[in-house]
Amino acid sequence: MDKLCIVTTGGTIDKIYFDDKSDYQIGEPQIGHILDELGVAFRYSVIPIIRKDSLHITAQDRELIRATIAAQDAQHVLVTHGTDSMVETAKVLATIPGKTIVLTGALNPARFRGSDAEFNIGTAVGAVQSLPAGVYIAMNGRIWDPAKVRKNVEANRFEAI
C-alpha cells in the first residue's frame, strides 16, 4: 500500500455530544487524530466529504461518495461511515472496479472512553491492505461482505444474513 486514501462521511465515530442539550453534532473527522496518536507507519490522506448521521445520507450523497472515490488514484480506500446505512453505501461503492474499499465506523463516538472506534479502524486498515479488490465492511472485529451482513439495531452489532 503506497498511500491510504481515507474518505469520511460523518456518523457516530465523529459525533460530539452536548450534555446540557442532550443533543449531538457531527464534529471534525477523528480518524486522522487516531492514526497520528497510534503512530502508524504508512502515509494517508483524509478527504472529508459530508458530516451526516448515516440515517440522513441520501442517494445523491452516496453518488458523491462513489464519484469521489472513483476519481482517486489510490487503490486502497478506507471510508468512515455511520453504521445504520453503511451497508447501503457499500452496495453503491461495489460499482467501482479495481479498488479495495473498506467501510468502518463506530457504535460509540471516538471521543468516548471505551469506544470501538480505534479497534474498528485498526481492523479496517489491516483489511484494506490484505484483501483483493472489492468492497468490505469492518465492524465488530470481523470483515463482512456487504451483501451478506446487516446491522442488528436491537443487539447493536453487525451479523450475517
TrEMBL record:
In Pfam terms, one family for this protein is Asparaginase
Species, as recorded: Lysobacter firmicutimachus
Starting at the broadest rank, the lineage of the source organism is: Bacteria, Pseudomonadati, Pseudomonadota, Gammaproteobacteria, Lysobacterales
Q: Which residues form the L-asparaginase N-terminal domain?
A: 3-159
Is the keyword Hydrolase assigned to this protein? yes
The protein's UniProt keywords, in alphabetical order, are:
Hydrolase
Q: Which InterPro entries match?
A: Asp/glu_Ase-like_sf, Asparaginase/glutaminase-like, L-asparaginase_N, L-asparaginase_N_sf
Q: Could you state a single Gene Ontology molecular function term? A: asparaginase activity
Q: What class of enzyme is it?
A: hydrolase
Which residues act catalytically here?
12 (o-isoaspartyl threonine intermediate)
Residues that, per the record, bind substrate:
54, 83-84
**Annotated EC:** 3.5.1.1
What name goes with this protein? Asparaginase domain-containing protein
